[in-house]
Amino acid sequence: MGNEYGCHNRFDYSDDAMRAFQEWCRERYGTIDAVNDAWGANFWSQRMTDFSQIIPPRFIGDGNFMNPGKLLDFKRFSSDALKAFYEAERDALAEITPDMPLTTNFMVSASNSVMNYDDWGDVVDFVSNDHYFTPGEAHLDEMAYAASLTDGIARKNPWWLMENSTSAVNWRPINYRKEPGQMIRDAMVHVAMGADAVGFFQWRQSRAGAEKFHSSMVPLAGEDSQVFRDVCTLGRDLDALADAGLLGSRVERAKVAVVFDYESQWATEHTATPTQQVRHWTEPLDWFRALLDVGVTADVVPVRGEWDAYDVVVLPSVYLLSEADSQRLRDYVQGGGKVIVTYATGISDERDHIWLGGFPGSIRDVMGVRVEEFAPLGDDFPGTKNEVSLSNGTTAHDWIDVITSVADGADVIATYDDDPWSGLDGVPAIVANRFGEGRSVYVGCRLGRDGLAASLPEVLDALGVADSDSGSGDAKVLRVVREGADGTRFAFLFNRTRGKVTVPVDGEPLLTSMASVVGDGDTAEITPNGFVVTRSVCAD
Amino acid sequence: MGNEYGCHNRFDYSDDAMRAFQEWCRERYGTIDAVNDAWGANFWSQRMTDFSQIIPPRFIGDGNFMNPGKLLDFKRFSSDALKAFYEAERDALAEITPDMPLTTNFMVSASNSVMNYDDWGDVVDFVSNDHYFTPGEAHLDEMAYAASLTDGIARKNPWWLMENSTSAVNWRPINYRKEPGQMIRDAMVHVAMGADAVGFFQWRQSRAGAEKFHSSMVPLAGEDSQVFRDVCTLGRDLDALADAGLLGSRVERAKVAVVFDYESQWATEHTATPTQQVRHWTEPLDWFRALLDVGVTADVVPVRGEWDAYDVVVLPSVYLLSEADSQRLRDYVQGGGKVIVTYATGISDERDHIWLGGFPGSIRDVMGVRVEEFAPLGDDFPGTKNEVSLSNGTTAHDWIDVITSVADGADVIATYDDDPWSGLDGVPAIVANRFGEGRSVYVGCRLGRDGLAASLPEVLDALGVADSDSGSGDAKVLRVVREGADGTRFAFLFNRTRGKVTVPVDGEPLLTSMASVVGDGDTAEITPNGFVVTRSVCAD
Amino acid sequence: MGNEYGCHNRFDYSDDAMRAFQEWCRERYGTIDAVNDAWGANFWSQRMTDFSQIIPPRFIGDGNFMNPGKLLDFKRFSSDALKAFYEAERDALAEITPDMPLTTNFMVSASNSVMNYDDWGDVVDFVSNDHYFTPGEAHLDEMAYAASLTDGIARKNPWWLMENSTSAVNWRPINYRKEPGQMIRDAMVHVAMGADAVGFFQWRQSRAGAEKFHSSMVPLAGEDSQVFRDVCTLGRDLDALADAGLLGSRVERAKVAVVFDYESQWATEHTATPTQQVRHWTEPLDWFRALLDVGVTADVVPVRGEWDAYDVVVLPSVYLLSEADSQRLRDYVQGGGKVIVTYATGISDERDHIWLGGFPGSIRDVMGVRVEEFAPLGDDFPGTKNEVSLSNGTTAHDWIDVITSVADGADVIATYDDDPWSGLDGVPAIVANRFGEGRSVYVGCRLGRDGLAASLPEVLDALGVADSDSGSGDAKVLRVVREGADGTRFAFLFNRTRGKVTVPVDGEPLLTSMASVVGDGDTAEITPNGFVVTRSVCAD
Fold first, then answer.
1. Is the Cβ pair C168, B358 closer than 8 Å?
2. Domain's final residue, options B250, B281, B304
3. Residue to test with chain B: of A35, A354, A372, most B Cβ within 10 A
4. Among A136, A215, A227, whose Cβ lies nearest the Cβ of C384?
5. How confident is the model at residue B469 (pLDDT cuts 50, 70, 90)?
C-alpha cells in the first residue's frame, strides 16, 4: 500500500495524466460545452470544442492567470486519481488477505490539503492519520484540531494514529524537539480525539540516509534515553486504557461544530483572489482555538459531515457553497439551528462561479446582511495598514466585508472605527439575525484567534447559547470525553497553559502524566505538557 | 489589435527570435565587429565572427554575468519586434477601415517599462494608456506622474485612458479597494493630465474565470451598488466637461520638466551595477513628488521630448547619455537653461560604455563636479548602515557620489557629516554651478522624496527660480490646467492630504466631487479624495 | 589554466558526469554493496545492484530527501573531477615551461567551500587565493581568518594573493566601496598572514561588459584618483618589505588552532539536519573572532593539517570525525593536548553514518559528556524563541545539546536558565574534563562571537592556559608575526576598532599606514583602517 499518497506526487502533468484528466472531465461534465461553462471559458477565448483540447494547468508564467475552474477540477482529479490507485492496491490485497482491514495513512493537519481526505474516508476500512506537531504555542491546539478533523472524517468511528514523532522531525528548516512530557501527552490527545492506536515513525533511528535526524522510539543515543523510557511508559499507559475498556469508545459529540472544506481550501489557493493572505484554512483553526479560549471544545466537521446535528455550527470562510449546501444551511437555521458565518463564505458555487447580487450570495437571506465589495487590508505598500478597530475593542486584519445593508430586525453587534474618508467607519462588522426558528451571526472580517475569543461571549449570547455548553468551561484546559457503549465515560484533561493548573476530576483517575491528583481526589494539579484521564460510569 | 503588448510576452528566446535578433543587430550595427565593439566583447573572450553566433541572453545561472550591452540591445529589439507586430496588425486594419484612428493600450506607470512607450508613441494614431493605481499613500501622486508621462509621450496631444479600475484589481497579493470618491477622482486626474476619454476594465464583472475578482463598472453585487452609481456619476461629469469645451484642449506646459528615459531604466536593471537598490525609475517619481511638495507641478518628459523647452529641467539618474544628448544638455545650459542633475546620470553612452575620467562623464564641465567613485549604502551586512546625514539636515540613502573636486566658482550647498574614517565626512553633496548663460545643480546622492522636498527651496534658489512658478504653490493641492484653443482654461485641483483643504477657486466651478464651493464662491473646501474643476477664459 | 574552478561550474549532472561519478564510486568503494552500505541504501529501498545504476543527485522536488551520503560523495567527486582537470592543464603546461611554478586561484573565504581547497593544496606548486572582502564590521576579521586558512592550506609556505579588489566589487546586490586606507591595509593583512605577492582584479577598469563596475588599479576616473595613488603607494610598500627581507618568511605558529573542515561543511549543507541555521562554517569564524576579542590570534588549520602541534585546538562543529580522526584527537589529549569541542562535532563518521550511543559519539570519553538529543532553537513559529540564557551571563542561539550526563570529575562551568518545563533548565552547557594528561572543554550550544568571547577566559582557565599566550593580548589590535629563516621577525599590527588605538611597537618601524609612531618610538597610534609593521631580530 502506498505511503502518504499525494505528499510528494500530488500533480502529474504528463500526457498520460492529460488523457486521464480529459476522461475525468468527460465523466464529470458529459459534454465539452459543460466544461466550457464550468470553467467560464468564454472569458479570454478559452472555449474548447473537444475533450482532447483539455491540457493540465501547466505553468504559464504567472499563476494569477490560470483558469481557476480548471485548476480546482485538476485538484479534484488528482485526489481522485490517487484514490483510484489506492483502491487498485487495496483490491489486490483484499483478494489475498480478505480478513485484514485495509487503510492508508492520511495527512490530516490544519495546514495540509493535498488530498480530499474526507472523500478518501469512504474507501478505507478504517481511517488512519499521520500527524506531525506544529512547533511553538499552537502545538497542543493544532494537534487537537487535526485529530478532531480526523475524527470527523472517520465519522466518529475509532481510527489510528499511524505516524507521529517521539520528538523532532528532520524536514523543517529548524527541527524543534519535544519538551519533557509532550511525547506522551501528544499521543494521548489523539487517543482522546478517537485514536485506538498510536504509531511512530521511526522505530529505531537510522544511522544513515535522508531521515537519520528524525526522532524515533529507539533514538541514536540508544535505549538509555528519556525518549525510549517515555515510549515504554506510553506503551504501559495505552495498555492501561485498553484494560479499562477504552477501545471502541467514541468521542462525545460536541455542542459546536466548526466546518472544514477541502474544496474551499483548494479554490482559495488560486492567486487572483481579493487577497492571498486569506485562504479557507486560515479561519477554522482560529475558531477552534478561540472556542477553546472560552472553554468550549468544538468538533471539526467536514462540510459533507453531520454539522447540522450540532447546536451551533460555524462556517469559517467556507468559500464554496453549492446550491444544495446553501439550502441545507437554510433548512438548518429555518428549523432552529444556530449558525456563525464569516467573511469569504458562500462566495462561489461548486464550480467557483460567484453568487451574484451581493455577498454571501446564496445565503444573504439567512444572514441578514448584504456585502457590496471586499476591503482587503495589508501593509505591503507605504501608507497601507493591516488593522482596523472594531467598536467591541477587537481589531480586524486582512479582510473586511463592506456590508452596505442589514435586514430589518437584525442587530449590529459591532462596527468599524476608522478614518472618516476610508468608507469603513461605522460599517457593520458583526451582525446577528433571526431566520425561521433559528439564529445567525455574520462576522464580516478576520479577527484572529484573540479577536474571536473576545467577541465570542457576545456572539454566543446573540445566538442564545451559553458559552460553556461543552468542553471544560475553562480556557486553561482542553477537555475531551470518549464514551463507551456501556456508558463508561473517559474524560481527558490537558493543560493548555505554561503554568500549573488545578482542575476538578470527574471520576476515577486512570492515568496522569506531569500531573498529580491532590486533596481528596476531587482535583488534580497539572503541569504544562501534562494531562489527566479519568473514568466514570454515566448514571443515566 | 493586441492587448498590452509585452506585458506577458516581452521576451522570446526561441530560435526564430534568435534569427530576428541577429537581423536587428545587423541593421543597427552593420558589421559583427561593430557589435563586438558595442558589447565590449573583448572582455571575457566574447568576440563573435559572424552574426549567426549571436544568441539571445538566455539564462546562464547568474544574471550578474550576462553581457549588459547585449541585454540592453535585446530589450530594444524586443520592443521593436512587438512594435513591428503592432504595425502589421494596424496596417491590415487600416486597409479595411481607413477612417478609423488606430491605437493600442500602453502600460505607462512609474514602475513599468516593458516597452519603450515613447518610441511607440510614433506609430499610433493617438496614444492610449492602461493605468492601475498604486495602493497606499502614493496613489494620487503616482497616477499624476504616470498620466503626465503619458501626456509627454503624446506630445501634449489629447490621449485616452483605455483601462483603469473602478476599485480593486485581482493580480496583486493584496488587492486594496478604492475608497469613496477615488474612482471618480482618479479618472479626473487622467483627464486633467490630458485624457479625452476614460475607459474601464471590465464592464460587467465576470462570475468565473481568472479575473472574476477584478472590479468593474457593473460589479458582482449588481447595479444596486455604490460602484455602479459612481460610474453613472462619472459619465455625467465627463459629459459636462465635454459640454464645457474640454475635448481637444491641451495640458498647459509646466515650468519644470522631470526627464524619464526607458533605455536608462533598462540599462540600470542589469544586476552587476554599483547597487541594485538604484535603478533609473526610482528617482523621477521622487522628484515629481518632491516638487509637488513645494507646490510645483512638473511635466514628466521623455528624454527624446522637448525638455529643453522648459525653464528648469531635472535629469534624475538618467544613466545613459549619448554624445548627442550630452551636447544637447550642454547647449541648453550654455544658452541660459537651468538644470538639476543627480547621481547616476550620464554614466554611460547609449551603448552602455562608461564615460571615462570621472563622473558624470560627458557633462562634468556643465555640472562643475568630478566624482571619483560611488559609495553605495546599505544595511545588508552587520555594521553597514543605509544613511548618511547631510549638513542641510537631510539624509542620504542607497547611493553617494564621492565628489573629489568642484569647479572654481561653484557653490557647495551641502556636504556629508559622517564617521571621520569613512572618507565621506565633508565631501560635497549638493553643488551649484554656473555654465554659460545658465546654471546647474548637482545632487550627488539619493535623498528620497522628503530629502528632496527639504532641499528644493535652496536648490531652486541657487538656480535663480522661485519655488512656485507653476502648480498650486501649495503642497496640499495638485493643480493642473488644460488650455483650450480659444483661451479657455480648465483648472483641476485635487486634495493631496488626508484632511480637508481650503483652496482659492480661479474661475467658474464646473464640477466638484467630495468638495464644496464656500463663501462667495472664491474658495472651495475639498475633502480627501476630492477635487474641484473650474473654467475661466484667459483675459490676455 | 582555468580561473576559479568550481565557482560557476561546480556540479555537472550530464550523462558524461554520471559515468565519471560511477567510476569515482567504483574507485572509492570497490563494490556496489560498499556503496549501498556507505549511502545507507537499505533505507527507502535505494539499494543498487550495479554501478551503472548510480545517477547524479539531480533535483527531485525537495532537497530534504536527497540521499545525504550520495550528495556528500558527489561533492567530493566534483572537487576531484575539477582537480583532475586542473592537473591535466598543469601537466600540459609543465611540458612546455618546465621551470615555471604552476598554480591556480583558489577561493578561500569564511563562506565558500565549492572545492576542497585543502585537498587541492597538494597539486599546486604554490598556493594562491582570490579574496574579496566581506562588507561591514567583519571586514578585517574575516579577511584575517580566510588568509590564515589559506596559510594553513599552504602549510605555512608562502603563498600568493592572486586577486582582491582595490574597492567595490560588482556582483553583490549592494557593492560597498573600501574606505580610505582599507585597500592598502587589506593587502597587508594577507601579507601578514603569509602572502608573498598581492594581485588585483582588474588592472584597468573596463568601460563595457559585465564587470565594468568592478574596481581596479586604474579606475574609470583615471590615474588622477585616490585609488590609483594608493595602488602606487602599496607598490612602494611591498618593495620596502621585500627589501627588508620579508619574502620567504613564514607566519609564526600560534598557540591556538581553530580547525576547519571542507567535508564537514559539505555534509552540514544537507537540508534534513537538526537545523539549517547551523552549518559547520558558522562556528570557526566566530571562534577566531572571539579569540581575537580576548587578544589571541589563532591559526586556522584544515582538519588534515597539524592541529595537534598546537597547545590548544578548537573543533568548532566539526560534524564529520572518522574513526582515525577520533583516535587522533584522543591521542592528542591523552598525551597532554588541550581541546575545545563544540556542539555538532563528531556526529558522524566520514560516510555520514552517525556515531551511536549519545553525542559526541566517537569522543564522548574525551569530552566527559553524553548528549541524548539536540534542541534546536528558532523563532520561525509563534511562541518559539531563539535564545536561552546561560548561568555565565551569555545566551545560546540556534542549537543546544541536551547533555544528560557528565563524567565523574568533570566540572560544569555553565548551565542553562530556562522555563522550568522546557527540559533545558539546569542542563549543563559548558563542561570541562580531564582525560589522560590533557584537558578538554565541551561547549554544548551556539554562543556566537560575543558569548564565546565572554566565556573564553573561564574556558581557557579550565584548560590551564592564560588567555594571551599568542596574538596581541589586546582585543583592539590584530597582531601577526612572520619569521624569517635568519631570525628576523616582522610584526604586523592592525587596528580592529573604529577609534584610534595606541600600541607598543616591538622593533624598528618599517611601514605605517593611517598610523604614526609617537613618543620615543616605543608606541604607535593607529587610526581605524591603519596598521604598523615593525622588524626585529630575535635575540635567541
1. no
2. B250
3. A372
4. A136
5. low
3-state secondary structure of B524: strand
Separation in Å, CA of B524 to nearest CA in chain A: 18
Three-class SS string for C312-344? EEEECCCCECCHHHHHHHHHHHHCCCEEEEECC
Taking only the tens place, the pLDDT of each residue in C154-199 is 999 999 999 999 999 999 999 999 999 999 999 999 999 999 999 9
Q: Tell me: the pLDDT tens digits for B410-460?
A: 999 999 999 999 999 999 999 999 999 999 999 999 999 999 999 999 999
Contacts of C421 in chain A (CB under 8 A): 179-181, 498, 527-529
Q: Would you please indicate which residues of C are annotated as catalytic (active-site) residues?
A: 4, 163
Q: Which of the other chains make 3 or more beta carbon contacts under 8 angstroms with chain C? A: A, B
In a domain? residue A95: yes
Q: Hunting for cell 551571563 — which residue is that?
A: C393
Query: Among this protein's residues, is A387 annotated catalytic?
Result: no
Mean of pLDDT values over A30-59:
96
Shared domain check, C236 and C149: yes
Inter-chain touch B136–A276, beta carbons under 8 Å: no
Mean pLDDT computed over B249-255: 97
Domain count, chain A: 3
Report how far residue C175's alpha carbon sits from residue C169's, in angstroms, rounded to the nearest whole number: 6
Domain stop point among A222, A250, A278? A250
- Chain B residue closest to A372 (CA)? B221
Query: Which pLDDT value is given to residue C467?
Result: 54
* % of chain B residues with pLDDT over 90: 94
Active site residue B373: no
The answer to whether residue A448 neighbours chain C at the CB level (below 8 Å) is no
Q: Tell me which chain A residue has its CA closest to the CA of residue B498.
A: A421
Residue B305 lies in a domain: yes
Same domain, C311 and C405: yes
Assigned domain for A4 exists:
no
Extract long-range pairs of A54-61: CB within 8 Å, 24+ residues apart.
Answer: A54/A18, A54/A21, A54/A22, A54/A25, A55/A18, A56/A11, A56/A12, A56/A13, A56/A17, A56/A18, A56/A21, A58/A13, A61/B8
Q: Are residues C329 and C394 in the same domain?
A: yes
Q: Which residue of C has its CA nearest to B359?
A: C221
Q: What is the CATH number of the domain that holds C524?
A: 2.60.40.1180
Q: What is the mean pLDDT of chain A?
A: 96
Q: C43 and A225: CB-CB below 8 Å?
A: no
Residues A450 and A518 both lie in one domain: no
- The CATH number of residue A404's host domain is 3.40.50.880
> For a pLDDT cut of 90, what percent of chain A falls above it?
94
**Residues contacting residue C469 through CB under 8 Å, at least 6 positions apart:** C255, C256, C296, C311
Is residue C5 situated within a structural domain?
no
This model's pTM is above 0.80: yes
Q: Are residues A268 and A200 in the same domain?
A: no
Q: Which of C 242-271 lie inside 8 A of A, CB atoms?
A: 271
Task: Show the beta-strand stretches assigned E in A156-194.
Answer: 159-163
Task: Enumerate residues 31 to 70 of chain A having a beta carbon within 8 A of any beta carbon in chain B.
Answer: 38-44, 46, 61-62, 64-69
- Alpha-carbon gap, residue C527 to B482, rounded angstroms: 62
At A160, list the grid cell: 489510528
Q: What is the CATH number of the domain that holds A192?
A: 3.20.20.80
B236 and B343 part of one domain: no
Nearest-CA neighbor of A219 among A160, A178, A158, A185? A178
Would you place residue B540 in the very low, low, confident or very high pLDDT band (cuts 50, 70, 90)? low
Among A262, A268, A272, CA closest to A60 = A272
User: Considering only alpha carbons, which residue of chain C is nearest residue A498?
Assistant: C421
Rounded to two decimals, the ipTM of the complex is 0.95
C275 closest CB neighbour out of A175, A211, A221: A175
Domain with B458, as residue range(s), is: 256-469
Task: Give tens-digit pLDDT for C362-418.
Answer: 999 999 999 999 999 999 999 999 999 999 999 999 999 999 999 999 999 999 999
Contact status, residue A423 vs residue A402, Cβ threshold 8 Å:
yes
Cross-chain Cβ contact A274/B527 below 8 Å = no
Same structural domain, C507 and C384: no
Q: Within this chain, do residues C139 and C49 fall inside the same structural domain, yes or no? A: yes
Q: Which residues of chain C have pLDDT under 50?
A: none
- The mean pLDDT of A227-244, rounded to a whole number, is 98
